Amino acid sequence: MAFSRSARAGALATAAASFLLIAAAPAPTPGGPGIGDTYFPQLGNGGFDARHYDLDVAYDPATARLDGRTTLTARATQALSSFDLDLQKLEVTRVEVNGRPARFTRDGDEMTIIPHSPLPKGRTFTATVTYGGVPEPLGGPIVFGSHYGWMKTADGVFVACEPNAASTWFPSSDHPSDKATYDIRIKAPEGLTAVSNGRLVSTYDKGGSTYTHWRESRPMATYLATATIGKFDVRTGRTPGGIPIYVAIDPALKNGNAVDVYAVTAAATDYWSRVFGPYPFEETGAIVDDMPEAGFSLEVQSKPAYSAVRNETTIVHELAHQWFGDSVSVERWKDIWLNEGFATYAQWLWAEHQGTRSAHDAFLATYNGIPAGSAFWQTEVADPQRDTMFASAVYQRGAMTLQALRERIGDKAFFRLLPAWTSLHRYGNADTADFVRLAERVSGQKLDDLFQTWLFTTGKPTL
Length: 463
Fold this sequence. Notes:
By secondary structure, the chain is an alpha+beta fold. It has nine helices and 24 strands. The chain has an eight-stranded mixed sheet with strand order 6-5-9-3-2-13-16-15, with no helix packed on it. A five-stranded mixed sheet has the order 18-19-20-22-21, covered by helices on one side. A four-stranded mixed sheet has the order 1-4-8-7, with no helix packed on it. Strand 7 and strand 8 form a beta hairpin. Helix 3 packs across helix 4, helix 6 packs across helix 7 and helix 6 runs antiparallel to helix 9. The longest helix has 20 residues.
């Protein structure tokens, strides 16, 4: 076949352009072992964006053994020769990328996966990890005040993972900046109930085991995932406002309830929906387990987890987190006041709503009740440091910041600001600078001095 001179020149130009595109494509490189969070430098992973987790876990309370198979769907944000996942202590037996066996190495809590061929930038891929072992909780009285993570109970397990324990039971990009949707399938001994995030898709008994499938279709930070298993009395329905509700309470606590968990959960969910904006998830609820050694509750997405019977104040705090912490998550852990300060302030708003005490009086009681020489005033709320990120000042002085802001800009602007914040960053991440900018935009005021005083300066402010 013969070509004209012009056709031949065109073909050569096309070939040259293709060569240049190939030559210009960046060479594949390893993804980062962490996202660079100063509090947890190795948490999360660079080079990809997690999109969905499909978790299959089987737990035997008699042996405390967990066997799992996790499939992560992600999008490469760079050309990847390898990438990391966070996984603590559990043994990995097989890894596949896009259905093909892949090599992997382990270095402490980091697992590096080498796919059969490099992953181009922008490509969606799957990574499937088969693993097992006995998960170990983290923490203790010296670190964060309690054990946390995968915690064995008398009849099952209580799973509450803030800030860095999700990777004790499934391989993940274990940082709140890398949110994803979830399908969580749990196999447990027949007679036990497995409770997780989102809505219940199916449950059935077979061969002496109960198989339960939960689906969280809204983006979720890894630390908010749960697979709590045990004997539970379950009550379902809808809140007066029409939101589906699922409350599971350990029957061992039946006679210890000082509060109607179901009723308070329903009422608070509806009230916060009016104050903070529409409820961000498909279901609300609670998991109340007999695990007092844990000593805390956690804002597990869609169903806060309580390690024992808690009071009304705790319930409204954890439900406020569904907006502040769960739907709008921190960009880095140093901004934790955006979770805890807001949820603590919600307790003050609830008391105001109930007519028992105004938020102004709660502010004054906190301010006047803590002497100027107290260590409380030496915490920089905007960057409290890793080992004191859950110090009381983050909660209380964070709440005081919001009341100071409310009194500065007025109720009209303040109660426009809260739903504007949850709407602007719904299902995403944000930091302190984002909140300051929005507060100034909504109020039309310069607020640098207020936030500098309450968030970035140590010492007791002068009123």
